[in-house]
Amino acid sequence: MNYFYLFLGAGTAIVLLIIFYDIKNKKRVNEILRANKNIPPLFMLRSAELKVNAIRSALSTPGYIDSEETQNNLIVQLDQIMSSYKNREMPLATYYAKLGSLLITVNKMKTPDPVPQGEIQACL
């Protein structure tokens, strides 16, 4: 019968240690979450940076867009979006969405590559 009380006491002590450890870790996690609440998502920032680089490289490529006026308009739109994000006038999610729509617009404006007429080959 002495072993029963020994295991009962040891089991109770172990359960209490686990409960106190869990409470301590929950407090740490909540402190970390509160400290990181205002930090923007890093993957979204990196993806937005890649979108800006893709738009800039497409707009700086000669012959990518036929109309010079359209190209200048797209450059102005990109500058407006970037300046409003830098001035904290729009949140990151809106900035990311607007860059995505501008990238789609730029990709639609791409001039088609001319197909050589004399070198069309049949594929079997």
Characterization of the model:
With 124 residues, this protein is mostly helical. The protein is 72% helix and 0% strand. It contains four helices and no strands. Helix 2 (42-60) runs antiparallel to helix 3 (68-86) and helix 3 runs antiparallel to helix 4 (92-108). It starts with a helix and ends in a 16-residue tail after the last helix. The mean pLDDT is 87.
Order of helices and strands: HHHH
The shape, in one word, is rod-shaped
Average of per-residue pLDDT values: 87
DSSP summary: helix tally? 4
Percent helix: over 70%
Ends distance = 87 Å
Strand content: under 5%
Topology:
Elements: H1 2-35, H2 42-60, H3 68-86, H4 92-108
Question: In summary, what is this structure?
Answer:
It contains four helices and no strands.
Keywords:
124 residues; 4 helices
